[in-house]
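Section 5.1 Outputs to date
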Amino acid sequence: MPKVAKSPGIDQAFAQRNDLKHYIHEAIAKQPNLKPLFEAISDHINNTVLRQTSATIQPEPASKKRKLDSPAPARNVAPVPKWAPDSFYYFNDISFSIPQRKKLKLDVGKLPEQGIRATNAEGEVELDIKWADIREITCLPIPEKAHAAYNFCVFTNASRDSPDTEQVVWTVQDAIPKDDSVDPKLKETVTGTYRWLLLTSINEALKPYNKSVTIPGPSEFVSQLAQAHRKGEMAYHVRSFRGAKDGYLFLLSSGIIWGFKKPLEYFPFDVIESVSYTSVLQRTFNLNIAIRRSSDDETQEFEFSMVDQADFGGIDAYVKRHSLQDASMAEQRRAKRLNVNGVKGQDAEQGNDAGGELEKAAREAQDMEDEDEEDDENFDPGSAGESEGEGSESGEEGDEPANGDAGDDSEDDADE
């Protein structure tokens, strides 16, 4: 095999792939006429790499350089103006879960042009949201915890059009903070738990915008289910599933929130088109919320399944109190788009008689049970034997109608 001189261009192009370089040189040794082809390919690779490298290190135009006082900080942390030390309160080691799981220092600005910030251990700002950009802040109790804890959930104005972005969630325990964990300037004026200190400082900052932190309360909704983790306390959530994800619905004075899996779902009243109930079973039902975020958007349907029947009354009262459409009564209320209780006259009587799909189903189930009981009372053992093998077999079936119904519903629940 004739020996062919190696090409520097080929060696440079395939410097990171010795195996390919070896095969190329072997091919050229066997067929020298291939050398120009491989050299042309190598030149193309080398020129492409050179252009990419030049574009990466190319200096910015002078006009852009003059706008920056210092080089961009590392890790894509955006440069932001510093706050004066006396213009904000700080909370150390706050646990964030959205947009990422991390412990950060939380700063709460006092001035209208400020907002909330989260900084890392190096003092770099990783999160900066202005008060003017915030659409909603809520403080929600975290369900099923042995010790009380709360999630502060922030939704910016961008969340209305892009629900997967601009959401912030951090968690605080319902406990008195340690001496070094909260700004002493705040503790000089306010005493209480983490939750109370945050509520006080944030609400004070939101006053110029006529806003405040939204918290759940008995005037909106209280669950009828007993709380196993903290007995005797009111629960303001509804356990449900969104697809395979389990979570909690909170019915608030400003809208409905489902959490706390990422992303949260936030439905302010002005985007809700209708609320309806489907898959109505003896123990559970599904809650469907149809929304339209703007007049140009199509209606989106969000289904929350396996809601306990015990909470239907509170949910339905909430829907009617805030004049949200009930899709199961849509035909009767089509002319009154956002007024559930506004139907008058004959329509109102029909609406009250119907009571919604869920109530109708419950009445039908009760009527069937009453008929079964009446049949049992009228049953004459002496006349059995001529119809469907009655007698002892029918008696055995009549002993356990409730268990049979429960078994059917359990299977239906599992299918859901």
